Amino acid sequence: MSALGTPPAATRKDGLPKLLGVLGVANAVMYMLYLGVGGLLVQTQIAEIDPENKVANVAMVAGVSAVFATVFNPIGGTLSDRTRSRWGRRNPWIIGGALAALATMLLMSQVSTIPMILLGWSLAQAMMNLYQAALTAIVPDRVPEERRGTASAVISVATSVGVMVGVQLAAFFVADVSLGYLVFGSAVVLGALLVVSLTHDPRPGEYEVTRRPRTSLATSVADFVSALAHRDFLWVFVGRALMVLGYFMVLLFMLFLFQDYIGLSKEEAPQAVATTTIVSTLSAMVAAIVCGPLSDRLDRRKMFVTAAGLVTAVSMLLPLLWPSMTSMIVYSIVHGAAFGAYGAVDIAIVTLVLPSKGDAARDMGILNVANAGPQMIAPFVAGAIVSAFGGYGALWAVAIVISLAGAVAVLPIRSVR
């Protein structure tokens, strides 16, 4: 088979360490923008414009923008799979998505109303998901199956670094949000340039091309979601969606949790978010470094994901039962380690249950809907829970139940041990 089935052809040209290093940087800058901009800059800007309705406005912006992420990720993956150019299949969408994202950051730096923030961040999510769809397809394209756990660990660590650095940078730029937007957008372009200049995206002739007949719209839509008819693929989708939902129900409101649940001032809360993010990220990195390669060595994936999901749920009991800065730090350590282990192995499982090698980016894009979809509904669910019960205690309780469901969802998978 060609590059559709055996990625080492591309890996030999790049060298696996080099490829994973570049992927690490490209994923890190992506999550720097996602969490730095979406987690702090956008929320700060919204709170300054309309402090009385900040929770509702943040929920609206996060939810609507996640719709764009949900739609554009699988679309971007499909377009990437079908691209045949002298620059490769993935490169045009990686660099194009990054440049378009920078343009949306420029727009964000100039807006001063809630509707314009909504428009700008929605467009940013759309363009970043074109970038992400092509980037995530590189692992099934070019990394051998027996090294997927290691690749998954690298990406998980890179994600953690991106979150940590992104939140720290965002906290630094809270006083100058406009400049912060441009810094984050420029970082993504730099990551894209590293990918396209330092790694080899196979060109036509280096991989097997499947000619596709013209089809009706209904047939195209059916083909698009056909991957969900595969049992193992569906269970991975469900498990990831539940884990991400439980995670983002809390994460999207961390700034307000510190202000309104823990009781910190408006000046103290952003630094508290940054501090707990560092603690969580370091724990996640250690867990990912250990669990990813270990899952390769043991050839076991499900037990790592299930255990990580259970510990994630248990960690949320700490702030629920003991709301304080100390409990938030302990929670961040335990939760970070659990989610780091989950991320280090989940990506490996994803790449091993793809129904079609030739549609890797499309199917990875569909699975990324399990990332974006929960982010779309999480702010609405969380906002409704906080409003209905008059506080954040119920939010922790619901997130625990959802995380437990996500932990056991991978158990029915048959094709991965």
UniProtKB/TrEMBL annotation:
One Gene Ontology cellular component annotation held by this UniProt entry: plasma membrane
InterPro entries to which the protein is assigned, alphabetical: MFS (IPR011701), MFS_dom (IPR020846), MFS_trans_sf (IPR036259)
Entries under Pfam families matching the protein: MFS_1
Transmembrane segments: 20-42, 54-72, 93-111, 117-139, 151-173, 179-198, 233-258, 270-291, 303-322, 328-354, 366-389, 395-413
Top-level taxon: Bacteria
Membrane topology per record: Multi-pass membrane protein
tRNA-binding as UniProt keyword: no
Protein name: MFS transporter
Residue ranges constituting the Major facilitator superfamily (MFS) profile domain according to the UniProt record: 19-417
